[in-house]
Here is the input.
Amino acid sequence: MTPVKTTTTPHAPTAVPAARTRAPGTARGPRRRPGLLRRTALPYVLLLPALALEVLVHLLPIVMGVLMSFKELTQFHLRDWGAAPWRGLGNFTAVLDPGAPAGEALLRSFLTTCLFTVASVGLCWLLGTAAAVFLQEAFRGRALLRALFLVPYALPVYAAVITWAFMFQRDDGLVNHVLHDQLGLTGSPPFWLLGDNSFWALLVVSVWKGWPFAFLVVMAGLQNVPRELYEAGALDGAGTWRQIRAITLPSLRPVNQVLVLVLFLWTFNDFNTPFVLFGKAAPEAADLVSVHIHQSSFATWNFGAGAAMSVLLLCFLLLVTGVYLFLTSRGRKAADA
Amino acid sequence: MRRFRAVAGAAVAAALLATTTACGGGSPTGGDADASPRTLTYWASNQGPNLEADRKVLEPELRKFEERTGITVELEVVPWPDLLNRIMAATTSGQGPDVLNIGNTWSSSLQATGALLPWDEGNLARIGGRERFVEAAFASTGTAGRAPAAVPLYSMAYALYYNKKMFADAGVTRPPATWDELVATGKRLSGNGRWALGAEGSNLSNNIHQVFVLGKQHGADFFDAQGRPDFTSDGAVAAVKQYVDLMATHRIVAPGNAEYAQNQSLSDFAKGRTAMVLWQAAATTFASQGMDDNEWGVAPAPVRSGAPGRGRNVNSMVSGVNLAVFENTDNLDGALEFVEFMTSDEEQRILCGRYGSVPPVKAAQDGPAFDRPELRVLRDTLATSAAPLPQVPSESQFETVVGTAVKNLFAAAASGDAVTTESVRAELDKAQRQMPRQ
Here is the structure.
């Protein structure tokens, strides 16, 4: 955040008179530069309220969380957590030691989350892009399909996931009714909310919930691809598949860069889906990091360890985001050149 | 521009990430105990079939209190899944209700936070002293030797509920009194899509209630005398294995029960899909599911000897709800007055009568509402053969980690995996290693 602030400082309104006094002789300078300053400063001034709230609502709790991660914070100090004893890096070494139970559990949860995120983001993107490309062509019922596809995105998460939880019930759920009772695909009705299958149940709900966003964003991105490119491509004899690879996907690159990042962060951090689906004790196969942290903090009342895990998660996601932005920006510059 | 974009991207990322970071807190505000003498905020736990039902039961009584004292009580009924988190948030911020209901098993854990007003002799004298309450109920109000963190409000105990018609159809003439009889009866009742016993395999608290009692019957306590976790003792392992074996070995519990956590076992019972459940004060739930009172019977939960009592013959935990005063209250006098009102003989008869629970106040137990066969069993159990869950500060953690261990074992049993003494001990050992350091 700091670099943004330093960028705003030279353009602050107070700088305007100084600029005038320093360049009184030039005829064009004083007229042009205040206008330029006003134009460049205005966005930042408009950003200020949001920035202030951002600090209050997001950055301050982050700082609090980081402080907690260095403390031995259990129920004995909950009432006045400032007075909890400092533990130095103790919480971090405990949750990072793969030989210790806490570290082993966190590592397993982290790997599960990575696998889940890659699968979910990949499928969301694939489905969203395929549907958006398919709905580019005008045909009867296109508007209806577009609206229908967006339904999962418009539904309240809790209500939707609770419905899924009912559908995944072993004895009375719709999923087993179709797979086992009607199609006879399984020997005995499988559990979806317990054991290893819970990973697939979670993935299905996550993709169902996430792909309409990808669809929406890609559809918006496609509006900016000039029709002439496709016409030129068609004249050169490019088929549909070739057009998608040579025109659609490269044109969507900037959109995809943001879309994949946002999907990644949302999925990796997703708490509602696993929590509503499995309750506070998720099965090992679906024990995502966010639920794991909640379990460590609120169920076992070890807020120091929970905060340490949160800080590690924050660092990991910042690192991934930084590397991702660096690589994709470099790739794009190379492509632009 | 590229650098700016990267910076802006990082800022957006930071904003998105922030949602998982632990929430902030603050120091207690140290509220003035007499700042608002005319109002009280009361968090009630969900005792009826739904939140609205609770409001209907409580609001007339709160109006009565207002007429007598001039103090307005703002009521909020908090669902059970949220209650403990809400209390913890209130503890951290110092901004909470004046009076609140807590699960009685949380008493020691919450006592350790210092958020609840200690009920010293002076405060207890205001509500008539501890002698007014049933001993077992009062034993579940905090760590022994410390001033209680709360006082009993509603009491419950476990009993065996059975479907009379299913028993008659299978030729069973009386409810089982020992575990051997339960298994034998269970095998006669199971079959043709029906099962003998219901369980809530994914409900962590219920798992704890069941294995704690079985632990008592095996001479195990789950905590040693110093309050340190002792989950892997032979008795504890045997207790957990005995409970899970009802599904894994004896097959008298349906495998699907492994994922039950929202009282589905009670609906199965009401629909005649299972013949028995071990539950606490279930009458109102059966009635709300459309089951007539004549269709089910009730008996003391089984013990090995067949004769419930103390020590190894304990057949229930002391279940119930306690009433606590938040230490940061800005109306201490009013809060104490409200607790006195809620624990008065008259209110106890009204409230426990409506909720189908046993009044923890001895003098209130003689009403006609409590002379039903079910409540006689529950009342006797509470008085003679119920034990409080461990009154140690880490009780809440115990419920979570051991409750999860039992859930995992049920999941294994339901999937057809073997549940052995070793696998039970391994799960319990994993649970014990998750407990906070002592």
